[in-house]
Amino acid sequence: MTKINMTVNGRAVSAEAEDRTLLVEFLRSGLNLTGTHVGCDTSQCGACLVHVNGEAVKSCTMLAAEAEGAEVTTIEGMANADGSLSTIQAAFQEHHGLQCGFCTPGMVMSAAALLKDNPKPSEAEVRDYLEGNICRCTGYHNIVKAIMAASGQLDAIAAE
Amino acid sequence: MSVARPLPHDAAALHVAGQARYVDDIPTPTGTLHLAFGLSDVAHARITAMDLTAVRQAAGVVAVLTCDDLPGANDVSPSVHDEPLLAQGEVFYLGQPLFLVVATSHLAARKAARLGRISYDERPAILSIDQAIAADSRFEEGPRIYSKGEPERALKAADHRIEGQIEIGGQEHFYLEGQAALALPQENDDMIVNCSTQHPTEIQHKVAEALNLPMNAVRVETRRMGGGFGGKESQGNALAVATAVAARLTGHACKMRYDRDDDMMITGKRHDFRIAYRAGFDDEGRIEGIEFTQWARCGWAQDLSLPVADRAMLHADNAYHLKDVRIVSHRLKTHTQSATAFRGFGGPQGMLGMERVIDHIAHELGRDPLNVRRVNYYRAAAADAGASGGSISAKKNDRAPQLTPYHMPVEDFILHEMTEALAERADYGARRHAVAEWNAHNRVLKKGIALTPVKFGISFTLTHLNQAGALVHVYQDGSVHMNHGGTEMGQGLFQKVAQVAAARFAVDPALVKITATDTAKVPNTSATAASSGSDLNGMAVKAACDTIRDRMAAFLAQEHQVEAADVVFADGEVRVGGAVYTFQEAAKRAYEGRVSLSATGFYKTPKVAWDRIRGVGRPFFYFAYGVAVSEVVLDRMTGENRILRCDILHDAGASLNQAIDIGQIEGGYVQGAGWLTTEELVWDDKGRLRTHAPSTYKIPAASDRPGIFNVALWDGENREETIYRSKAVGEPPFMHGISAFLALSDAVAACGAGYPDLQAPATAQSVLQAIRRVEGDG
Question: Of B87, B465, B561, B611, which one is least surrounded by beta carbons within 10 A?
Fold first, then answer.
């Protein structure tokens, strides 16, 4: 067991964990942040995506110990300071970018990482970026639409 | 307040904030234990010894159970008690659960489960359709046969004849949330189970059997699933029973979630099929006589395979009037996972068989397949036909409905108009010409286009399942609590039904609290399956709301000395004899007037009656329709391909929620196209599934969806009296994916003179084989 320290959603946290503990398990079991989901267990589906020091990371493919001292943001930390939904979250709701919702936290985190680096992506760039996030319900149309809307480019998709 | 509004999914705000709870997210009591199955390494064998010493000694292990340790029935079958929870002396597929590990953590349970030392006396395994046919290994005594007219005579008399065969692969559900269950032991041996299931009543039933309890001692709750698609209709039984048994034996809460690889190794998938056909037709492609032989690979246990195979037969006609027809169905028993329900439930396979025949006929005659489709379509619904179906007596009338191969009149056929509308909207004619032009000038990249229809029968074919219950309370503050037997798996059922409840009381949908499916609130429910969720539960909720509303109206009418019929619920208000109350005020008055504000509702689908052995009757209340055009391009050198564009026009009747219905159509198409293109299940010659993770099993990704994707709802209403005249929408759009497959067939046909004979799934490899075939013939 090792004591692991990190900042999660702006809050300093510290917990004992086995060396082999995955970041996703640390978040879900250790911190009870269950919005980060385990979909495939093998880093393919993207349901467990979080940000570590601002970078998109699949938390089932990283040890908690590797995030020692890091700034971690999960879906629970994405809302605005007043608790209202962020632009990206609100766009997913408004544009029906979800059905069963299981992939949604990973999709929102992925979208946020994309828009941070590329605030006005083309639709093709959005699709390409989401290659590591699987959705089995929506056919992706409304997910892409939500991200385009969040980047202020709903017109680009409406004109399709 | 109109019911039909494109409101977001009821839990959307929770989902985007990571606050929506799935089974694995529910806070568990201290001391909760975790479970994993030890799995069979061979496909068929007698177990000679199970040495579980190392399993028992592994770190964190609390108990290890075999079939001898179970307190009650060792069975998790949803049908004929042929599916032991833990193998009993013999194993029937590679991946079958043999023993159950109970440990202090998920990881400890999984690690220990690998340590079992099992000795087997291996036996020959029947894995493939060919092996099953050779061994005559089947469910039921022989094939089911449905027929109408004289197919042999008609086939012989026809000017043209073709015959052929198509292999149709299965499909992994890949619900993003794997199977999961949590059992909480209660006083007096009662059990509460939280389970990711489409069928809480079935879970309750199987847990009660396993614990030797009456059903009233078991309560099952399901708030939501992270996707179901049929994969959680019966496949959750094993986890729920395992957790309940372990909870009974240890006294602790027990949780189980399958790791994704285990999930894919253990659970059943879509049935793969082989369909052979012989068809006779005239110069225009009009089918004179036809025979289908369907072989379904059902796996080791019967599960739901009989109704799945029945539904494949019931969709062998798809949208076409087959005067003289014979459909033969073999349900093969193999040593593989027990194939199960999957969106469409056999319908897609049966339908693909028919569409393949049309494609083949068109190629044979050198005609546009769309024209062949149109000449074979069922006759249009007579404009004057009432919902009573009174026109059947006018049999000599050429407007009388035509009969399906199972002798049901098709009274609501609207595909003539829908096809014309979509062909125009999607510019089919000009694009087909442009595709031909492109192919004439490009050697490597070949394009193809196809327009395919869907006619899908709505109702459970097991007639007694077509029933539903609801429980509605109105509290004294005017807030509404709604519960029904349907489950939410992302399809938006809860939102649609809440809109129904809000409309009955004429209040804002935000006043309606949607609550978890709970066998203690509504008993004896059917699975949320067969696309029936909103049809059945919407009607049951409507009945419950109307009971309460009528009681409120009667009370207020008496207070104001008017007729109950003159009490008006509108715009969040209740108007009675000149007085206007808010709904909240009206509820408070009714409460103080000692009026019961709680009611149950019940609904059973009318008109359905069906004999599945003879293949005669009316299995379906109505049909849902749709048409899709897909255009594709392929690389002749590699077989790689893409969908360029898709246009869909789909019939959801008078939609309850257009946004949710369109979402079902978009998702259904992509899932259907995935089934027929990239999603390939591969078993090796030992019966081991080699594609048991998304690394090797290719689910459509964001970039696989067509670049241009236009989806529209048909503007019409259900001629039958369904909830607000809407139509079921869960399964029918899945089969629009067939248009992508046949567009690929069209593109392959441009590579040579022969018929592509494309096999499904049309992976790059399968496409390349088809290209070589037509080149060889050319």
Answer: B561
Tally of structural domains, chain A: 2
What is the pLDDT averaged over residues B15-39?
98
In the sheet that holds B218-222, the strands lie side by side as B61-65, B97-103, B33-39, B254-257, B180-185, B191-195, B218-222, B517-518
**Does the complex come out with an ipTM higher than 0.90?**
yes
In the structure encoding, which two tokens stand for residue B271, read together? Answer: 């049935």
Q: Same domain for A91 and A113?
A: yes
Asked if A136 and B229 come within 8 Å (Cβ–Cβ), the reply is: yes
CATH number of the domain within which A119 lies: 1.10.150.120
Q: Which of B209-223, B389-403, B739-753 has the lowest mean pLDDT?
A: B389-403
Whether residue A6 sits in one domain with residue A73: yes
- Asked whether residue A82 is domain-assigned, the answer is no
Alpha carbon distance B481, B722 (integer Å): 23
pLDDT over 90, % of chain A: 94
Q: Work out whether the CA dihedral B582, B586, B588, B589 comes out positive or negative.
A: positive
Q: Which domain holds residue A126?
A: 87-158
Question: A 116-135 residues with CB below 8 A of B?
Answer: 126-128, 130-131, 133-135
Asked if residue A100 and residue A64 are part of one domain, the reply reads no
Strands B33-39 and B61-65, sheet pairing = unpaired
The per-residue pLDDT for B389 is 43
Amino acid at A109: M
B722 in Cβ contact with B417 (< 8 Å): no
Mind giving me the DSSP string for B26-93?
Answer: S---TT-EEEEEEE-SSSSEEEEEEE-HHHHHSTTEEEEE-GGG-SS-----SSSS---SS--SEE-S
- Residue A122 counted as domain residue: yes
Picking from A32, A96, A108, the nearest residue to B9 by CB comes out as A96
Domain boundary among A77, A99, A128: A77
B535 within 8 A of B528, measured Cβ to Cβ: no
- Chain center to CA of B5: 25
Could you tell me which chain B residue has the CA closest to the CA of A89? B16
Same domain, A41 and A104: no
Per residue in B449-504, pLDDT (tens digit) is 999 999 999 999 999 999 999 999 999 999 999 999 999 999 999 999 999 999 99
Domain assignment of residue A120, yes or no = yes
Q: Is residue A36 part of a domain?
A: yes
Is 80 exceeded by the pLDDT of residue A158? no
Integer-rounded Cα Rg, in Å, for chain B is: 27
- Give the closest-approach CA distance of A74 to chain B in angstroms: 9
We report the CATH number of the domain holding residue A31 as 3.10.20.30
Q: What is the pLDDT of residue B381?
A: 77
Alpha helices in A29-122 (DSSP H): 87-94, 104-117
- Of A53, A77, A101, the residue at which a domain comes to its end is A77
User: Do residues B408 and B389 make contact, with C-beta atoms less than 8 angstroms apart?
Assistant: no
| Residue whose C-alpha is closest to residue B210's, from B233, B196, B189, B188 | B189
3-class DSSP state for residue A23?
helix
What φ, ψ does residue B580 adopt, rounded to 5°?
-125, 120
CB contact under 8 A, B12 and A101: yes
- Phi, psi of B404, rounded to the nearest 5 degrees: -70, 170
Question: Residue B395: pLDDT above 80?
Answer: no
Average pLDDT of the residues in B413-424: 98
A60 plus A98 within the same structural domain? no
What is the CB neighbour count within 10 angstroms for residue B437?
A: 11
pLDDT in tens, A59-110: 999 999 999 999 999 999 999 999 999 999 999 999 999 999 999 999 999 9
Which chain A residues have a beta carbon less than 8 Å from that of B25?
28, 34
In one-letter notation, the amino acid at residue B137 is: S
Chain B residue with Cα closest to A108? B16
Is B731 among the catalytic positions? yes
